[in-house]
Each structure stands twice: as C-alpha cells, then as structure tokens.
Write a structure and sequence with these properties.
By secondary structure, the protein is an all-beta fold. Helices cover 0% and strands 51% of the residues. The chain contains no helices and 11 strands.
Length: 112
C-alpha cells in the first residue's frame, strides 16, 4: 500500500520558518518524481516545487529563493524548508508523487 505522510506543519509568525517532511512507503521512493503542492482556502491546488526524474529541481516563482526542496532516499523522506513565510503561504501542504499518490496534507498557518 502506497503511503505518503506529511509532518512539520503548524503556526508561525510572518518571517518565520518551518520544515516539512514527507515519508513515503509502498513504492520505490528513490526512483520517483516527488513534489510539494499546496492548497489555500478557496484556491486551486498549486505545485510549488519538485524533483524531476533527472534529479533536477523546479520551484514556483512565488517561492523560489524562500523554499528549498530536498530528499533523503535511504530514509524515503522528502523535505521542504520554508523560510521568510508570509500570510499568503497559509495553506494545506501536500506531498505528491505523480501517478503514485498524495499525502493527507499538513496545515501551515502564517499570521501574527
């Protein structure tokens, strides 16, 4: 059974940082394209960042320079380091492996 379990969300003040983690199981994590997406209230899901099959990374323009994606293949874990968080970053953040599965999400709230 494929499982993707996110953790690390929470409340943070503007300018703060959070590190999200996503542990995968039930599939070959090391060979898989892995991405982070988020959905804010009333908005569509948007893909923020991801690892492509060749190991390169991409970032949505609005998070480039503030967010950093990384992975630890032996631990089957994907990370998203988020710095300089702003209220507009408030959303449910999902770990997504295209055509494999998506986690349940972790809430990130940025407010003063």
């Amino acid at each position: 059974e494929v499982q993707l379990v996110e953790s690390g969300g929470g409340w943070v003040q503007p300018g703060g940082s959070l590190r999200l983690s996503c542990e995968g199981s039930g599939f070959t994590f090391s060979n898989s394209i892995m991405t982070w997406a988020r959905q804010a209230p009333g908005k569509e899901l948007e893909f923020l960042s991801g690892f492509l099959r060749d190991g390169s990374t991409y970032y949505l323009e609005s998070v480039r320079g503030r967010f950093t994606i990384s992975r630890d293949n032996p631990k089957n874990t994907l990370y998203l380091q988020m710095n300089s968080l702003q209220p507009e970053d408030t959303a449910v953040y999902y770990c997504d492996a295209p055509r494999i599965g998506r986690g349940q999400g972790t809430q990130v709230t940025v407010s003063s």
